[in-house]
From TrEMBL:
GO terms for biological process: melanin biosynthetic process; pigmentation. Residues 202-219, 383-394 form the Tyrosinase copper-binding domain. It holds the Pfam family Tyrosinase. This is Tyrosinase. The chain crosses the membrane at residues 474-493. GO terms for cellular component: melanosome membrane. Its EC number is 1.14.18.1. Its main location: membrane. GO terms for molecular function: identical protein binding; metal ion binding; tyrosinase activity. Residues 287-313 are annotated as: Disordered. PROSITE patterns: TYROSINASE_1 (PS00497), TYROSINASE_2 (PS00498).
Length: 529
């Protein structure tokens, strides 16, 4: 009870990160298209008086998009968030937040000047106390309403272009479930028509940066509602697993004794209600998910379609994926070949990197294996295993970044599917984040992974690999240069010896005076090679 009361107080006092800020979810803000709330610290919009930020026009990317979405002006998420707001807070320095009242990821302190790096750990390496605390934090988030954010229950058109706001409250945990749904939902085209080939968080370059930002925001929310500033998301290392090691009542919930599709009554998660799982119903009604309860979490791990996902991913699958040098390729969607992103996401074979729609590998394999709420994209975040799974996927992304050290320019600037270009803002986050901002090492964002800090052989290999790859690329040139240098050295040496012999056999009376004798010993140091 004390933890619940403390959490409720903290969530009231501190801002969160997510969808529509409550202070901007009103007719005035929607009609003016401005979301620049005052910062509590000085009472001015965006904390301008304290030089935290200012209210500015949003700067949208003009880079061309890929051909996957052939419409314009039919989806509220196009050019996010311009349908709702075209002026928001632009924060300075290390400040962040919809009112510039927070610190950027990786910074803390009164003026956001203190660097911090927290460590995410394997869930099986947590103590019993730490593990129980994590489970309690999850349950707390499921039951505490977000005080700073609300969700939209209608499109901008259904809101009569802002004059009839349609928003509702939601819990902290369900806010993130709803955001994941909103980013991946189908486009409503009117009548009973929808466009399914659209996703602002999957099947394209933004998949990894989007989920990296998503987890960071989720992690920060837990820190705030609990007051535990050192909390980090644990990860589940599923490489070479024979079954779902976290699917028991000690961790994320075991099987129901009479219904294998449900969770054990002994698990706190058995009482959770899922939201945003009935996509076909929403589409037929041309409506958005309203976040009402739709039944319990469903999970039946291992009883999935074996022809699609015969097993959980192996260490070899991960290592092959990490060896891929291209972050993105070709169409930059689920048909991309030899793409690290597409292979890790699971649309390309983890042994060949060739796109294979009939199979689900790596990231996708875990979702299919769970055979329940986690197996449907839009509602997958309902199952709390989602955060453990995606934390480990993010760690693989981190290993690739450390191994290949890509420049920001490696992330596509243009022609990616809608919402996935480097400078596109991520849907549906406010404050605004661009995809490219999270295409960087995790330590720059304030966190690391325990197994990447260990001085193990694989960590040394990750460090050494990029240099070996560079050496292989220039090996022929190095050999050629060495041979050429040897030849040149031999010729010069022979020429010098010949000159010396000639000098020794010539009388000083008939030998021309070329240089002063005191300078002669220095002649070889003046040669240019």
């Amino acid at each position: 009870m004390l933890l619940f009361a403390l959490g409720f107080l903290l969530v009231i006092l501190q801002p969160s990160s997510g969808q529509f800020p409550r202070v901007c979810a009103n007719m005035e803000s929607l009609l003016s298209k401005e979301c620049c709330p005052p910062w509590d610290g000085d009472g001015t919009p965006c904390g301008e008086l304290s030089s935290r930020g200012s209210c500015q026009n949003i700067l949208l990317s003009q880079a061309p998009l890929g051909p996957q979405f052939p419409f314009s002006g039919v989806d509220d998420r196009e050019d996010w968030p311009s349908v709702f707001y075209n002026r928001t807070c632009r924060c300075e320095g290390n400040f962040m937040g919809f009112d510039c009242g927070e610190c950027k990821f990786g910074f803390s302190g009164l003026n956001c000047t203190e660097r911090q790096v927290r460590t995410r750990r394997n869930i099986f390496q947590l103590t019993t106390s730490e593990k129980n605390k994590f489970l309690a934090y999850l349950n707390l988030a499921k039951n505490i309403p977000s005080q700073d954010y609300v969700i939209a229950t209608g499109t901008y058109t259904q809101m009569n272009n802002g004059s009839n706001p349609m928003f509702r409250d939601i819990s902290v945990y369900d806010l993130f479930v709803w955001m994941h749904y909103y980013a991946s939902r189908d486009t409503l085209l009117g009548g009973s028509n929808v466009w399914r080939d659209i996703d602002f968080a999957h099947e394209a370059p933004g998949f990894l940066p989007w989920h990296r930002a998503f987890l960071l925001m989720w992690e920060r929310q837990i820190q705030k509602i609990t007051g535990d500033e050192n909390f980090t998301i644990p990860y589940w290392d599923w490489r070479d697993a024979e079954d779902c090691g976290v699917c028991n009542d000690e961790y994320m919930g075991g099987r129901h004794p009479t219904n294998p599709n449900l969770l054990s009554p002994a698990s706190i998660f058995s009482s959770w209600q899922v939201i945003c799982t009935r996509s076909e119903e929403y589409n037929s009604q041309q409506a958005l998910c309203s976040a009402t309860g739709e039944g319990p979490i469903r999970r039946n791990p291992g009883n999935n379609d074996k022809s699609r996902t015969p097993r959980l991913p192996s260490s070899a699958d991960v290592e092959f994926c990490l060896s891929l040098t291209q972050y993105e390729s070709g169409t930059m969607d689920k048909r991309a070949n030899y793409s690290f992103r597409n292979t890790l996401e699971g649309f390309a074979d983890p042994q060949t990197a060739i796109s294979n729609p009939s199979q689900s590998g790596l990231h996708n394999a875990l979702h299919i294996y769970m055979n329940g709420s986690m197996s449907q994209v839009q509602g997958s975040a309902n199952d709390p295993i989602f955060v453990l799974h995606h934390a480990f996927v993010d760690s693989i992304f981190e290993r690739w970044l450390r191994r290949h050290r890509p420049m920001l320019e490696v992330y596509p600037a243009a022609n990616a599917p809608i919402g996935h270009n480097r400078e596109n803002y991520m849907v549906p986050f406010i404050p605004l984040y661009r995809n490219g901002e999270f295409f960087k090492p995790s330590r720059d964002l304030g966190y690391d992974y325990a197994y990447l800090q260990e001085p193990a052989l694989e960590s040394f290999q990750d460090f050494l690999t990029p240099y070996l790859q560079q050496a292989r690329q220039i090996w022929a040139w190095l050999v050629g240069a060495a041979v050429f240098g040897s030849v040149v050295t031999a010729v010069i040496t022979r020429h010098i010896r010949t000159c010396r012999k000639k000098k020794e056999g010539t009388s000083s009376e008939i030998q021309p005076l070329l240089i002063e004798s005191e300078d002669y010993n220095n002649i070889t140091y003046q040669s240019n090679f």
